[in-house]
Amino acid sequence: MTLILGINAFHADAAAALIRDGEILGAAEEERFRRIKHWAGFPSEAIRWCLDDGGVRLEDVDHIAINSFPGAHRWRKIAYTLASRPDPRFLWSRWRNKRERSGLAQQLATAFPGQPLRAELHFVEHHRAPLASAYYFPHSLGAFYTAITQFLGFPHYGDEYKIMGLAPYGQPGWLPQMRKLVRLQDDGTYNLDLTYFQHAGQNLPHQWSHGIPEVGRHWSPALETLLGPARQPDEPLDQRHKDIARSAQAMYEEAFFHLLRALHRLHPSDNLCIAGGCGANSVANGKVTVATPFRQVYVQAAAGDAGGALGAALEVWNRQGHGRSRSMATAYLGSRPTPGAIETLLADPSSRSALDLAGCSIQTLSDGEICSEVAGAISEGLVIGWFQGRMEWGPRALGHRSILGDPRRADMKDILNLKIKRRESFRPFAPSVLREAVADWFSLDGDVPFMMQVYPIQEDKRPLIPAVTHVDGTGRLQTVTEADNGRYYRLIRAFRDLTGVPMVLNTSFNENEPIVCTPSQALDCFLRTKMDLLVLDDVLIRRRG
User: Fold this and answer.
1) Structural element, H or E, at residue 80
2) H or E stretch including 246?
3) For residue 404, which phi and psi values (nearest 5 degrees)?
4) pLDDT tens across 352-406, in order?
5) How is the chain split into domains, by residue range?
6) Is it true that the peptide bond before 349 is cis, omega within 30 degrees of 0?
7) Which residues pair with 401 in a beta bridge?
8) Which CATH class is domain 133-299?
9) pLDDT digits over 162-201, tens only?
10) When comparing pLDDT for 60 and 202, which is higher?
């Protein structure tokens, strides 16, 4: 038996994954335990959970892989440094980060005192792990997208998805300017005009060590000469901002498909796997089979930085002379309640008092009863907190830590934002759809189990599901099968039997925080918001009135 622990450390979205003989035992992001979005640093709690869940100790692990190899591409980096002469403080911050990564053994010893470290340590080059290439290399679509995200007044790490949500409200009128930023090459690659960027050589403040990640400003003052004044975070969004967002997404797709078409010429295949930070661009992912010769697309559930933990572990497994592991068909790899934990939580006097104060009733029901009750509640316009089984791996709620609503209600987005989410009005909500119904409701057909692709919704179906139809007629879908997620599938099927619509609205179970991890976090979120029902495995909690 070979145990391999993979980690993404000293970077945003710190995470850990444990595999045994090529099979994934568990994987989780540190943010779920620390309760800080995109938590950066050393993922001690995620590691601890992976080991506990696997029933092993640190001393049982044979190999530990971190998704960074400080010596990779050394001569290329030296040549770039000599040519560009970056700010010395930039070089110092990179050197300090590498020192933290090289001190992995000490970090483990501190986090797990008294447990001898017997594992062989492996440093896996970040592209292979993978991590976003922007960390070391300046010519990156990720760096381009981050720069535009910041320029449009969204300064936090991970805000890029907001640009995808904003883009359909605009027109690509700034695409000629975007082509000055990203220049396509004849061989399928692309270069950034670094006049407009400062991520490659300036002393940008980055915080990857402990807590909330911070990312320095990627764009230079020259970008305002090209695109006009940058938006401040407290300024309203006007049409120019929406048009810039649309143009940036169009430029990303132009460069992405240009690269993929060149890749297909070199390696003809029907199949494409996508990972890395840019793998989260679900809008572009959904167009791959239309814009390129590839016919099947697989996007890992944790395509961004957190996924590097799993990638590093699998890379080391492969280096041991083993073949490919089994395909990752499920994202339900995270923590789950221990037996009796939900009952203990609800019996606690403080929980009882809070539930009584909120006027809640509690029932323990069978699987069929829960699906029937919740399907009926959704059809009545109620909002449901849905907590079951193992937590999802990756950024998407996929029916284990989800908030559910009726996709048929045009006002459901407003209801959710009023009761729980309080987020920007332009951000869409997603449909979870029975796999066999995809072709009847969408213009494309395929497996999208991890909600990493956006498909056009058939035009005649859009008025039927306005709550999950974006302004451009698309939806970021999750396909659901009974084999992969039995109870969630049966719930959606019950809703279909009631309404004729084979999908529910699905958004993450949180309130401007990381997705809930434990039953107590789910109960707390339910009580402090205006959700109507909460399902904790076999327990249904309903607010009266």
Assistant:
1) helix 74-84
2) helix 239-266
3) -120, 150
4) 999 999 999 999 999 999 999 999 999 999 999 999 999 999 999 999 999 999 9
5) 3-126+307-319, 133-299, 341-543
6) no
7) 387
8) alpha beta
9) 999 999 999 999 999 999 999 999 999 999 999 999 987 6
10) 60
pTM for the model stands at 0.91
- Spatial separation of the C-alpha atoms in residues 375 and 498, rounded to whole Å: 8
Kindly state the average pLDDT of the residues 277-288: 94
The predicted pLDDT at position 126 comes to 61
Q: Which CATH class is domain 341-543?
A: alpha beta
Look-up of token digits 């017997």: 118
Q: Which residues lie closer than 8 Å to 54 by C-beta, 6 or more apart?
A: 3, 18, 20, 25, 26
* 3-state class (DSSP) for residue 403: strand
Least confident of 28-42, 77-91, 138-152, 323-337: 77-91
R_g of the chain computed on alpha carbons: 23
Mean pLDDT of the chain: 90
> Which value, to the nearest 10 degrees, does the dihedral of the CA atoms of residues 532, 510, 465, 171 take?
150
Give, in order, the Cα–Cα distances in Å from 472 to each of 33, 169, 376, 430, 431.
36, 8, 30, 14, 15
Q: How far apart are CA 528 and CA 355, in angstroms?
A: 11
Band of residue 493 on the pLDDT scale cut at 50, 70, 90? very high
Q: Measure the CA–CA gap between 452 and 488, rounded to whole angstroms.
A: 18
Exposure string over 459-489, b if 16+ CB within 10 A, otherwise e: eebbeebebbbbeeebbbbbbbeeebbebbb
- Alpha helices of 348-483 — where are they, by DSSP H? 349-357, 367-379, 412-416, 438-441
Is the CA virtual torsion 294, 297, 298, 302 positive or negative? positive
**pLDDT tier at 70 (50, 70, 90 boundaries)?**
low
Is there a contact between 154 and 162 (Cβ–Cβ < 8 Å)? yes
Q: Of 418, 196, 450, 470, whose CA–CA distance to 333 is shortest?
A: 450
Q: Which helix (H) or strand (E) holds 506?
A: strand 503-508
- Locate 114 and state its tokens: 């008294």
Helix (H), strand (E) at residue 40: strand 40-41
Do 3-126+307-319 and 133-299 come out as alike in CATH topology?
yes
Strand ranges (E), 330-464: 360-364, 384-387, 401-405, 430-434, 453-456
Q: What is the pLDDT of residue 11?
A: 87
Q: What CATH number belongs to 3-126+307-319? A: 3.30.420.40
Residue 506's beta-bridge partner residues?
404, 430
Confidence at 134, pLDDT banded by 50, 70, 90: very low
Measured distance CA(197)–CA(404) in Å, rounded: 41
Q: Among residues of the chain, what percentage have pLDDT more than 90?
A: 77
